[in-house]
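ok, trying the design again with the full structure, not the truncated one.
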């Protein structure tokens, strides 16, 4: 059930990306950082997190899929390598977590504040592709966590954790880029704008 839901929204993200890329095809750009040392992004997507602590059940019994509203920054440390940060707000309607008060798992509305780090390898820049001034294909890793605020009779603040790979594409216009990402960790699917 969840995999059909995820695939449906991934299809919507890809379709939206294609429509937007056709509409801004005439615009120019210059490399993945636009000849600067940094790129900032805002986006919205689907996320999966693991709520801590984990007790008496396998890892897949604790956590949830939710909505991610995020922002990030990436800084050029090499011609084709960037490191950065990410934060935002994650909202889980049916977040599964373990409560240490009565030692049971609960489903709850959860709001998380993710704080994480990422590293990306910019493939077209590394390959010196002639398309690198307009397109940016990248792959990398992300890791992070933060506080999660649970709403239920035993609610409170509990930590959550995420880690995983991501792949993405960024299409630059004159001053703004549209991006789409797939992966695991910070987000499963994410779309937004970079500047």
């Amino acid at each position: 059930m969840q995999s059909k839901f995820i695939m449906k929204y991934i299809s919507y993200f890809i379709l939206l990306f294609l429509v937007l890329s056709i509409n801004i095809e005439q615009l120019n750009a210059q490399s993945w950082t636009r000849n600067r040392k940094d790129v900032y992004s805002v986006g919205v997507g689907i996320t999966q997190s693991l709520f801590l602590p984990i007790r008496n059940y396998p890892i897949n019994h604790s956590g949830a899929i939710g909505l991610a509203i995020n922002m990030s920054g990436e800084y050029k440390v090499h011609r084709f390598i960037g490191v950065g940060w990410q934060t935002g707000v994650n909202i889980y309607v049916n977040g599964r977590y373990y409560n240490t008060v009565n030692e049971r798992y609960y489903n709850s509305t959860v709001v998380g504040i993710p704080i994480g780090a990422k590293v990306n390898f910019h493939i077209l820049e590394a390959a010196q592709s002639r398309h690198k001034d307009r397109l940016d294909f990248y792959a990398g890793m992300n890791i992070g966590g933060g506080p999660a605020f649970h709403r239920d009779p035993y609610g409170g603040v509990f930590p959550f954790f995420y880690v995983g790979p991501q792949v993405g594409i960024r299409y630059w216009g004159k001053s703004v880029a549209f991006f789409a990402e797939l992966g695991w960790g910070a987000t499963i699917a994410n779309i937004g704008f970079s500047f």
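Keeping the full-length input from now on. Helices lie at 2-23, 123-126.
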